[in-house]
TrEMBL record:
<dbReference type="InterPro" id="IPR036747">
    <property type="entry name" value="ASF1-like_sf"/>
</dbReference>
<dbReference type="GO" id="GO:0006335">
    <property type="term" value="P:DNA replication-dependent chromatin assembly"/>
</dbReference>
<keyword id="KW-0805">Transcription regulation</keyword>
<feature type="compositionally biased region" description="Pro residues">
    <location>
        <begin position="184"/>
        <end position="193"/>
    </location>
</feature>
<keyword id="KW-0804">Transcription</keyword>
<dbReference type="InterPro" id="IPR006818">
    <property type="entry name" value="ASF1-like"/>
</dbReference>
<dbReference type="GO" id="GO:0042393">
    <property type="term" value="F:histone binding"/>
</dbReference>
<dbReference type="Pfam" id="PF04729">
    <property type="entry name" value="ASF1_hist_chap"/>
</dbReference>
<dbReference type="GO" id="GO:0000724">
    <property type="term" value="P:double-strand break repair via homologous recombination"/>
</dbReference>
<dbReference type="GO" id="GO:0000785">
    <property type="term" value="C:chromatin"/>
</dbReference>
<protein>
    <recommendedName>
        <fullName>Histone chaperone ASF1A</fullName>
    </recommendedName>
</protein>
<keyword id="KW-0539">Nucleus</keyword>
<dbReference type="GO" id="GO:0051301">
    <property type="term" value="P:cell division"/>
</dbReference>
<feature type="region of interest" description="Disordered">
    <location>
        <begin position="146"/>
        <end position="193"/>
    </location>
</feature>
<dbReference type="GO" id="GO:0005634">
    <property type="term" value="C:nucleus"/>
</dbReference>
<dbReference type="GO" id="GO:0031567">
    <property type="term" value="P:mitotic cell size control checkpoint signaling"/>
</dbReference>
<feature type="compositionally biased region" description="Basic and acidic residues">
    <location>
        <begin position="157"/>
        <end position="169"/>
    </location>
</feature>
Amino acid sequence: MSAVNITNVEILDNPAPFLSPFRFEISYECLDSLKDDIEWKLIYVGSAEDETYDQQLESVLVGPVNVGNYRFVLEADPPDPSKIREEDIIGVTVLLLTCSYLGQEFIRVGYYVNNDYDDEQLREEPPQKVIIDKVQRNVLAEKPRVTKFPINFNPENSEHPENSEHGEQPAELDNAAVDDQEQVPPPLDNQSE
């Protein structure tokens, strides 16, 4: 069982212009007191074929964290369009929200993001060069993909590791499944451990 669980993520100001900052309201619970900070990161996937185009938009440390419920707003600058290939700006990509403890990632929330022109004429007849000021992003907030990784939250007790499994555990926020093979738990805001 994880010491930290995300209970809700709300994407504020969505849809928004491509060049607007991202704002995520993150609610989470801590079931065990943690001596060190947890790290939240927001990563924009710039290309499905080449991870060198990925951009870390923000990284924040929160903690030390005591038992209880928490909520904060994570704000991040938009991706730098000059670091994205022109052909990858318009279309669907992925935004990753991750959380780590002591350098061990234990949760990853992935969102599809659709970038397209806000003007119908530009959508029908796109210009050869992207007009970034006319691009709107829409994070598909209702269909996140949540992956949990078991980690040892208490490395000083290494003879009794908290988790003996070494694989990922897919789950979902809310009631939306990405494909037919996933199991969908009840909505996180009603979930109890």
